[in-house]
Amino acid sequence: MSDTKKIGLVVKKDTQACKKADALEAWIVSRGAEVVRKENSFSEMKFSDLKHTEVPDDLFCIFVLGGDGTFLSAVRWIEDQDIPIVGVKFGEVGFLAEVCEESLFSVAEAILDNRFTTESRMRLEVYVFRNGKERARETVLNDVVINKGALARLASIETFLDDHYLTTYRADGLIVSTPTGSTAYSLAAGGPIVHPGVPGIIMTPICPFTLTIRPLIISESVCIKMKLAEKSSDIMLTFDGQAGLEINHTDEIIIKKGAHPIRMISIPDQHYFDVVKAKLRWSGSRV
């Protein structure tokens, strides 16, 4: 078997990102490694339109050049494989891409020399059943969202935890997120910031009709089951904001901790809360 490292590059279709990817690819090849490159052009897709392209099972790691959307696309590409991944910031501000453009090559050199560590990030497995038959199965890193359309009435979402009835959310929607996803849509909807090392799942209602309904953090071991009330219409289930599936009251949604976490490459001397402070501009810090 060849000892040549095979490096994945997932690149946002952006002039600056593509130019930097060209330089990185040439540098990697000059180091005697092989490059597998995938360009990502994000567009909102229905679940039925989503097609996974197979990822080589012998990738040493993956560099993602783009924003959070590109990173989430790369995670979907990996699927269940245990491949370390690192994001390089381009485009809009995000929380998943930790490497700045200026330090890319020094970080890349450390990675190719095996001088790096990884941290495990939980994912969620999502199943959708209709009349006892599986309609969809997805894995998400950030969140799964039940959301009503612009003209739809409030969604009524019956929710059970380990088959024990919790409540019926009457709201514009409901976000179920990982700690990694707590700084995404959930945060914008009023949910808490949860450190990625916390073994929990966050449930955040979107504009709830009852003000006493608040965001909830539950154990990662809990299985969540949800159903819409009858006569629900114009309701969408979205996976990491990457794909959507129309649902109705005949569907049953089951969400639980995924069996295959993502291994994110850790950058030395970079701490989670320093990133949070910078992104959210706490204490006057800037992005």
Sequence-ordered SSE layout with sheet pairings:
Elements: E1 6-12, H1 15-30, E2 34-40, E3 45-46, E4 61-66, H2 68-78, E5 85-89, H3 104-112, E6 117-121, E7 124-130, E8 133-140, E9 143-148, E10 155-161, E11 164-171, E12 173-177, H4 185-188, E13 200-206, E14 216-219, E15 224-228, E16 235-239, E17 243-247, E18 251-257, E19 262-266, H5 272-280
Parallel strand pairs: 1-2, 1-4, 3-17, 4-5
Antiparallel strand pairs: 6-19, 7-8, 7-18, 9-12, 9-16, 10-11, 10-15, 12-13, 13-14, 15-18, 16-17
List keywords for this structure.
287 residues; alpha+beta; Rossmann fold; Tumour Suppressor Smad4; seven-stranded mixed β-sheet; six-stranded antiparallel β-sheet; 5 helices; 19 strands
CATH architecture tag of the largest domain: 3-Layer(aba) Sandwich
Average of per-residue pLDDT values: 89
Strand content: 35-45%
Q: Give me the strand/helix succession.
A: EHEEEHEHEEEEEEEHEEEEEEEH
| Main sheet characteristics | 7 strands, mixed
What Rg, in angstroms, do the CA atoms define? 20 Å
Tally of separate domains: 2
Low-confidence stretches: 44-51
- Level-1 CATH class name of the largest domain: Alpha Beta
The name CATH uses for the topology of the largest domain is Rossmann fold
Total count of helical runs of at least 4 residues: 5
User: What is the H level of CATH, i.e. the homologous superfamily of the largest domain?
Assistant: Probable inorganic polyphosphate/atp-NAD kinase, domain 1
- How are the strands ordered across the major sheet? 3-17-16-9-12-13-14
Overall morphology: elongated
Annotation, overall tally of beta strands: 19
Structural class: alpha+beta
Estimated helix fraction: 10-25%
User: For the terminal residues, how far apart are their CA atoms?
Assistant: 44 Å
